[in-house]
Hints:
By secondary structure, the protein is mainly beta. Helices cover 9% and strands 52% of the residues. It has helices spanning 64-69, 127-136; strands at residues 3-6, 9-12, 18-21, 24-31, 40-46, 53-61, 76-79, 82-91, 94-104, 108-112, 140-142, 144-152, 155-164, 168-176. The longest helix has 10 residues, at 127-136.
Amino acid sequence: FDLLRLKEEEFEDVALLFKVEQDKLIIERSSNKILGPQAYLRGVFCFGCTPPCLDLFIEGFSFENLIRIAGRQEDIDLKGQFRGRLKLCLKEGEISTAALEFFNNQEGRLDLKKEASFDFLKKYLTEKSYHTLIDSLSNYTYNEAEVSIEKVDSDLRMNVNFNSRTGGKRNININFHNLLGGENEK
Length: 186
């Protein structure tokens, strides 16, 4: 594409090179500025497999564009170059496997700019604990980061772990119950 528009964002020269072999669509190492200015993508979509699966490997991934596309740039800023894998499989029209793992072992920054993004936590924490949490996620510089999302039955589990030599560790685990189709649905 010469120009790709997602919501209010425009991305120039988006290229996705692929080839088809038997029951697979093979995505070659392609530059993709939507995923970050230095992002490269490669992978396989096995449409002839049971179940059909998409398996992507991404290098140089940045959350900045995704945060901006989602309209959350006023709330949070996450800088850093990640690499990792995304795997999605379908079974009977529903997501049977969803797994995402991204790592960054170079310096980056997390900045929670807007407290309102975490207002839902106020009912679970004391006021002091809540403000300590918010303060610890503002202007936090990390040396290593790991972001993972996994589908377990009908739940989606998200783990975000940061490590800083000077600022300590930040580990955030969120479970979204009964979000996706799966064995736990009644």
